[in-house]
User: Which sequence fits this backbone?
C-alpha cells in the first residue's frame, strides 16, 4: 500500500510534468527537391519540436545515416580467402584495413576466423 504522503507527492509531480515541456511531432513534408543534408549525416527523416514555458523552443531532427562510401566495406571473400578453406583467418584479414580493425567484432562465434555468414551480418 502506498503511503498517503508518497501518493500525494507522486500526483503533484505528475501534474507538474506537463508544465516543463510540451512535445509535438510532425511528419516531414513531401517535396520534389532534394532533402536537406547535414554535414554529419544523410537525409532528414523526422523532426520533434518541444515548446518550453521557461525557455526557447527545442527542435530535434533525425537523419538517415549515409551508407559506407568507397571500398572500405566491400569484401571480395574469394580473394581474401587465400588458402581456399571457406573462411578468412586473422592473417588473411590483415590485407583489408577495415576488416582487420573490426575482426573481433565480426567474429561472432570467437573461433578466430570469419565465415561468409559472419561477414554478411557485418555488411548489412
Assistant:
Amino acid at each position: 500500500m502506498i503511503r498517503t504522503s508518497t501518493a500525494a507527492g507522486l500526483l503533484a509531480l505528475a501534474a507538474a510534468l506537463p508544465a516543463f515541456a510540451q512535445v509535438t511531432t510532425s511528419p516531414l513534408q513531401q517535396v520534389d527537391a532534394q532533402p536537406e543534408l547535414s554535414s554529419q549525416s544523410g537525409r532528414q527523416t523526422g523532426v520533434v519540436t518541444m515548446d518550453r514555458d521557461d525557455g526557447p523552443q527545442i527542435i530535434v531532427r533525425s537523419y538517415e545515416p549515409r551508407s559506407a562510401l568507397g571500398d572500405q566495406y566491400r569484401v571480395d571473400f574469394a580473394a581474401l580467402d587465400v588458402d581456399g578453406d571457406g573462411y578468412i583467418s586473422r592473417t588473411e584479414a590483415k590485407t583489408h584495413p577495415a576488416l582487420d580493425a573490426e575482426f573481433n567484432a565480426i567474429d561472432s562465434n570467437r573461433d578466430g576466423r570469419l565465415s561468409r555468414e559472419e561477414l554478411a551480418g557485418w555488411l548489412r
In short: The CA atoms of residues 3 and 50 lie 34 Å apart. The longest helix spans residues 4-20. Residues 20-28+39-66 form one domain. The chain has a mean pLDDT of 75.
